[in-house]
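Anyone have tokens for Na+ dependent nucleoside transporter? Sequence:
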Amino acid sequence: MIEAQGEWGIMPLLRGMLGIATVIGIAYAMSYDRKRIDWKLVGGGLFIQIVFALAVLYVPFVSGLLEVCGKIFVKLMDFTEAGLSFLLGPYASKAGGFSFLIHSLPIVIFFSALVSMFYHWGIIQKVVGGIAWLLRKFMNISGAEGLVAAGNIFMGMSESPVLIKNYLPAMNRSEIFLVMVAGMGTIAGTVMGTYIGMLGGSDPAAKVLFATHLLSASVMAAPGSIVIAKILCPQTEPATDRIASIENQGRPNSNLLDAISAGTTTGVKLMINIAAMLLVFIALVAFANYILNNLIGHYTGLNNWIADITNGKAQGLTFQFILGLIVSPLMWLIGVPGQDIMLVGSLLGQKTILNEFVAYFQLQQWIDAGLFLSDKSIIMSTYILCGFANISSIGILLGGLSVLAPNKREIISRIGIPTMIGGALVSVLSATIVGMILGQ
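Reply: yep, here.
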């Protein structure tokens, strides 16, 4: 069982501070206009993130509330099994082992229908509106920016911008940049259940723990997205104080049954898309590993050398090993325990080049194999992977936003790669803060 937290220590604290400075430094070095960065906004966003992380880990009421939310998520996931049992009968049982296709992916359909139902009732709008008010109050951003940043806690990067579709055509570059970074730096509630089921497996306590941290990561990503976006692309024009009203945009579904039906249809498409991407990307990784490991590594002797220098943790020259090697220095700087930096670095690389589904699947495999020497590394990995920042997401955002704001197509296409990097930094920043607070 993974422990929820460790003990305070001066070294983890110093490394955490170094990690925060490193992430902010990377964003500063890539900024479009360093002189116009609003450091008060940056400080406010970091303060909100740190306070929330402390509250989650050390304030019983907040951690208890988030744990209750996590248990609700897990309980909702259990209801999917009723539908699976009807459709698959004895094949739906986990007695014969855990199947990602059978036991995780169908959750996407059920959660998509639930989100559509809650949106129809106006529940999500009220929660998002409250969080948006908080972000506007403390971080001096426009209402539309606060709304889309908060919306991404629960919605996907394609759905959340619809909340401000009437404001997108009038947004400046900095505001559009924030919309895209917020989409890249968060995950959708519809897929969160899949990650919980994947990482928790059949252990109820592990499911609740991962649900708690995934929820925490989603909430922390809202102010984190604002911090990173406003460093990379500072606001050079006054922030407009226009509060987008979700209620006035009309409901797309005529009644509850229509909402459930639409959500189910969307979930089916999403499930098929996820399954297809996983199949292709994992097959491509296997193909790359065959070339690297079975051919190059085997005939050059690199496999044995790599296995020796990593004490058997790496099996040779593989795609995962190369990614881990490249990202290892950053992982050490943000406070990942030294013995696991290559594993966590590899996960970040896989998430960015492939997608977070592949990376979470790899995390689950490595947890089951007992490769991690520190529970802290597993929790930090959960935060690092909690975002849509990958190459394929650039195309998804370009396609969606270009339809909503065709007059901004040139700006959107120009800032695609920087926003992906910004989204990755958001997740890394959240992991750094949590790792610093976790301690040993």
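DSSP finds 19 helices and no strands in the chain.
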